[in-house]
Design brief:
The complex is a heterodimer. By secondary structure, chain A is mainly β. Chain A is built from six helices and 18 strands. Chain B is of the alpha+beta class. Chain B is 28% helix and 25% strand. Chain B is built from three helices and six strands; from the N terminus they run αββαββββα. In chain B, a hairpin with a 4-residue loop joins strand 3 (91-98) and strand 4. The chains are: A mainly beta, B alpha+beta. Chains A and B meet through strand 3, strand 4, strand 5, strand 6 and helix 5 of A and strand 2, strand 3, strand 4, strand 5 and strand 6 of B.
């Protein structure tokens, strides 16, 4: 499916292959597209082999358009780079080859050998502890538009989309591990609350904790404004998009508990992805509007097939992961009949601030942050676009990344209930 | 005679009201609000003394932003908001302070309302600071409903939410850090 280079190469072809790589590295694509091209549903055939089947479907339907740009450089945050150099040698997989062992901070596996039988699971762990969101994050007044047949049927606005890592911290004290980790064994905490609009969902909230223990499922709590009750929800509900418009297992990539899946490396390939988005916040676009096309560039992506280990553990997903930023630009989920069921696409930017008018959340170096997430439910024909920060937000800061903005008490169930009241 | 009594009673009532009003004014001597505030400004949000309205953005949905130009010291403004917001009944939430750039942001909330204030140097007048307040436009009906439900416990006991755990998940699992000595 994803081709590897035929081996062995005839000697005469080696210079040609080198030339191809040099050209690819310089931003001049040897594929069907070149920098400056705009891809819409009219000429989507040009990118058929350069995006996932799901993204191809989205572009074909006019939901997404692409502006091809030269590949840009993306540096890791210097503290993350230092942590990788310092700690990565200690990291390994657990005896069952599912969990992480000896992890402190930085990228767990800087060198991936595609011949390693555990290469796929290592790529997934790299994605879990990727350079982007290592300590804490908070983006306020985000919103998701849910559309069917080109018409927005629901718009949901959230107060906070926030997270806090207890392990792998590189920039904000306590470093590199929060002391609570030794007690609670939690890798990270996440909170999405309160829903501000629509009125009937006002106060709805979600919090989620990920444990280092591979056998312990995620713990998640939901505040339901209708019943006015706090409920603990099991993992099957985290795969469901119907609650808050987007399945928590797809927040910013493949977000399921890694140990619950088997992984297979399908290959590594030059494909298109949006890593230098020009707009933050993202504009609200009509279908097939080429002026709304974001910057897409050729990236070196891993394609990993993830299959649930249990019958009720979800379905097959093909996860595409960038080999430099370890972020997943898109992933395709298939139903039990093997048909494409859901496509999730993430648009990323790279800058020293997430909004041009930011005055507080400005960083000493450029960093990666998501600006939008687009999901298409093929079965229901529902398109959801989440804006990070919100499309018409009045907040001027956008992402607060590794600024110590949120702490552990922010993710308690008490905080959810207080915010809902 | 009856008329006289009525007039006296009316005059007495009016005097009491006037005295009460004056007393209330003395008790809550708020500085006058600066000119140019939007109609639906949340009057519970404190404004630093001497601040003037610089920019009023039109509301988007239920959120609106007002920028003030305020005199004073950076730390003084931070202290002002930390103390006055608490006095006004707001809960202080996450904050970010960047002393080198004199930039500050504080979240505050009350009865499900999520607001925030940012303080940073005024670009036009470096001796002053810009105070940007992002707030939810007050909705009296919603607040009244919240008050009825939450304060007066309108729902029967069986229908109310149970008290949430103090910190779900924390400490729930035994200490079981990832094994460090195994090789893959």
């Amino acid at each position: 499916m994803l081709g590897k280079l035929p081996t062995p190469l005839p000697r005469v072809m080696i210079p040609a292959v080198i030339a191809v790589f040099i050209l690819a590295g310089s931003g001049w694509s040897v594929a069907q597209v070149s920098p400056g091209d705009t891809i819409t549903s009219a000429n989507v055939g040009k990118v058929k082999d350069l995006v996932s089947p799901g993204v191809y479907q989205m572009v074909s339907a006019g939901n997404v358009s692409l502006k091809v740009v030269p590949t840009g450089k993306i540096d890791w945050p210097p503290p993350y780079k230092d942590a990788t150099e310092k700690y990565s040698a200690q990291v390994s997989l657990s005896p069952d080859h599912r969990s992480l062992a000896g992890y402190t901070a930085g990228l767990p596996f800087p060198k991936i050998d595609s011949n390693d039988p555990n290469a796929a699971v290592k790529v997934m762990w790299n994605s879990q502890f990727r350079p982007g969101l290592s300590d804490d994050y908070d983006v306020r007044f985000t919103n998701c538009d849910i559309a069917k047949g080109g018409e927005v049927i629901e718009s949901i606005q959230f107060g906070h989309y926030a997270g806090y890592s207890l392990a792998g911290r590189t920039e904000v004290q306590p470093l590199p591990t929060d002391p609570d980790f030794s007690q609670s064994n939690r890798y990270w905490l996440f909170g999405l609350y309160p829903v501000l609009q629509p009125a009937e969902l006002r106060g709805a909230a979600l919090t989620r904790f990920r444990f280092a223990d591979g056998s312990k499922p995620d713990e998640s709590w939901v505040w339901n404004p209708g019943s006015r009750r706090l409920r603990q929800v099991d993992e099957t509900m985290l795969r469901d998009a119907s609650g808050l418009g987007w399945a928590p297992d797809r927040y910013l990539g493949f977000n399921s508990k890694l140990e619950e899946f088997d992984y297979k490396l399908l290959g590594q390939k030059q494909m298109l992805g949006c890593f230098h988005a020009a707009h933050s916040p993202q504009p609200v676009c009509q279908a097939n509007d080429p002026s709304c096309g974001e910057n897409w560039e050729m990236r070196n992506l891993y394609a990993i097939e993830a299959n649930p280990r249990t019958a009720n553990g979800g379905s097959k997903t093909i996860v595409y992961i960038d080999s430099e930023t370890w972020f997943s630009p898109y992933l395709d989920t298939y139903n039990t009949q093997g048909q494409l069921d859901e496509e999730d696409l993430y648009l990323l930017a790279y800058d020293d601030r997430s909004m041009p008018q930011a005055t507080v959340a400005i960083y000493p170096f450029k960093r990666q942050f998501p600006v939008a997430a687009v999901s298409f439910d093929a079965g229901q024909g529902v398109l959801t676009k989440c804006y990070l920060p919100g499309s018409d937000t009045q907040d001027s800061e956008g992402w607060y990344l590794n600024l110590g903005t949120v702490d552990k008490p922010f993710f308690t169930t008490r905080a959810l209930v207080t915010a809902a009241h | 005679m009856k008329k006289v009594n009525l007039v006296v009673a009316l005059a007495g009532t009016l005097m009491l009201f006037a005295a009460g009003g004056a007393h209330a004014d003395l008790m809550h001597r708020h500085p006058p609000l600066p000119k140019g505030l939007p109609k639906k400004w949340d009057k519970k949000i404190p404004i630093p003394p001497g601040a003037v309205v610089a920019v009023v953005n039109p509301p988007s949905g239920i959120v609106q932003t007002v920028e003030f130009s305020a005199p004073g010291e950076f730390d003084g403004l931070i202290n002002f908001y930390n103390s006055e917001l608490t006095k006004a009944g707001f809960q202080l939430g996450p904050h970010v302070e960047v002393p080198t750039r004199k930039a500050y942001n504080l979240n505050f909330s009350k009865a499900s309302v999520q607001d925030s204030v940012s303080i940073f140097p005024d670009q036009k007048e470096p001796s002053k600071f810009t105070v940007r307040v992002l707030y939810e436009v007050p909705n009296r009906r919603r607040h009244l409903l919240k008050l009825l439900i939450d304060r007066w416990r309108l729902w029967p006991r069986f229908w109310r939410s149970k008290e949430p755990p103090s910190e779900a998940g924390a400490g729930a699992a035994p200490a079981a850090a990832a094994p460090a000595s195994q090789a893959n």
